[in-house]
Amino acid sequence: MKLHLQNNFISELPADPSEINIPRQVQQAFYSYVLPKKPSNPSLIHASNEVANAIGLSQADILSTDFLNTFSGSTVYPETRPFALCYAGHQFGNWAGQLGDGRAINLTEVVHENRTYTLQLKGSGPTPYSRTADGFAVLRSSIREYLCAEAMHYLGVPTTRSLSLMLSGDQVLRDVLYNGNPAYEKGAIVCRVAPSFIRFGSFELFSSRKDYVNLKLLADFTIKHHFPHIQGEGVGKYLDFFHEVTQTTLNMIVHWQRVGFVHGVMNTDNMSIHGITIDYGPYGWLEDYNSNWTPNTTDRQHKRYRFGNQPEIALWNLYQLANALYPLIQDAKPLETILNTFSTDYEKEYLNMMQNKLGFQIKKEQDAVLILSLTQLLERVETDMTIFFRNLSNVTKKDTATTAFNTIKDAFYNEKDLNETILKDWHDWFENYKIRINEETLSDTERKEQMNRVNPKYVLRNYMAQLCIDDADKGDYSLLNELFEMLKNPYDEQSNFQKWFAKRPDWARDKVGCSMLSCSS
Ligand code: AMP
Ligand code: MG
């Protein structure tokens, strides 16, 4: 197995001089060298061929002992020096100080076809940033991260990728419900891949410590290697950089809202500078459309990270990044100007995305009214988001409001909830929808095709991940393989997977792991 190594991060940025692996504050350094803990009996559960190819590896490499050893953390790949990043962040709206890679270890950067990737193990043991935790990850959360990142990629949502999922062969103690009942679970290690793992919190770290030398070093490094098209020097360069991060973050959130993804822990340490989804913890997928829903039990009370609040929180996080970059810019005005465009740009992008979901190729400003009334209707009774939008593409220009309504009826969790007023409102909505699609020039078939490219048929429903975890715990990975294959083509009909185009079963409604997830992972 041959990796084309590159070491920009560790060769250009200062390391923590200490290599003592105990939790501590690390000053004036970007990372600490640390070795993954040797797993006692590692085994490969799954690997992504596509990601392997992207970083220059073949199918044969995946099956090699080298692959197993390198991506389980058993051995260190020649001429690499693994390291854990130091960063800080705001958690649930509060300043949390230094955080860092508590259970992630970056192996190396690699280059393939002119693209840089950082390879990172998650769950391979303690680092100086582990604070009070153990640095390990359980199979349950590793499967969730591994599968979801790939599913998101195939949905067209910017994200980290997953290279491999391994069992460590060790047991990890977790108190899933935080109720004083800890139990041993299987340990696992995911290798995730991204251009870099630099976060908003990386900038906040140096800024909060008034370490402006390293703040500038970080900004210059990030721009040079990851935003090379940003030319020029001085303040303008940093503003361009901030503007681009704002735009890519906005784009990511619009995608989340499109597919019904709720991240669950949008802390600033979980916000990638690349505008990609990172750190899949207690995330969830909207099943019934409910903007108030959050999967994260830790957030149950305030619901800070609920579906409908994600754009607002992204903006809040961007404010924190702006504050962190301020010392390099020394002028709040241009930063505010950029931040102010977020809300207006978001409105525009959201409208455009929803118009696409509804099959409107001709864009009309008044569509906003129809869209708002739709989302309000979807909230009235439990309505499955994925099924609703997917089936909506079957409505034809000739349909009556009633036949159109019948097309999406499967999306309701309980038809008995549909009282007369609600039925009447749906009827009115479909009358307007009918008028609107009749203004479109595309044929029914063409419109359906377009809609099916933005309204997935298959997403990683919370209960599906849980079923797969239950099997995997018993050593049966067939469902994991099946879901992985299905989620590669989420927009295709794939009639062989039809059984997964279904509403959440009743047993999963309030089940731990399905509708409620804790941060314990
Ligand atoms: P999260 O919000 O889940 O991404 O994690 C917040 C912080 O806690 C990060 O610094 C993580 O590295 C750290 N962390 C989470 N779980 C563990 C663990 N099991 N061991 C060590 N650090 C952890
Ligand atoms: Mg994190």
From TrEMBL:
Pfam families the UniProt entry points to: SelO
Keyword Metal-binding attached: yes
Residues that hold ATP according to the record: G100, G102, R103, K122, D134, G135, R192, R199, D279
The protein's enzyme class: transferase
EC number: 2.7.7.-, 2.7.7.108
Cofactor(s) for this UniProt protein: Mg(2+); Mn(2+)
Binding residue positions for Mg(2+): N270, D279
Catalytic activity: L-threonyl-[protein] + ATP = 3-O-(5'-adenylyl)-L-threonyl-[protein] + diphosphate; L-histidyl-[protein] + UTP = N(tele)-(5'-uridylyl)-L-histidyl-[protein] + diphosphate; L-seryl-[protein] + UTP = O-(5'-uridylyl)-L-seryl-[protein] + diphosphate; L-tyrosyl-[protein] + UTP = O-(5'-uridylyl)-L-tyrosyl-[protein] + diphosphate
InterPro entries named in the record: SelO (IPR003846)
Active site location: D269
Keywords: ATP-binding, Magnesium, Manganese, Metal-binding, Nucleotide-binding, Nucleotidyltransferase, Transferase
Molecular function terms, GO-annotated: AMPylase activity; ATP binding; magnesium ion binding; manganese ion binding
Described purpose of this protein according to its UniProt entry: Nucleotidyltransferase involved in the post-translational modification of proteins. It can catalyze the addition of adenosine monophosphate (AMP) or uridine monophosphate (UMP) to a protein, resulting in modifications known as AMPylation and UMPylation.
Family indicated by similarity: Belongs to the SELO family.
Name the record gives this protein: Protein nucleotidyltransferase YdiU
Lineage, top ranks: Bacteria, Pseudomonadati, Bacteroidota, Flavobacteriia, Flavobacteriales
Gene name for this UniProt entry: ydiU
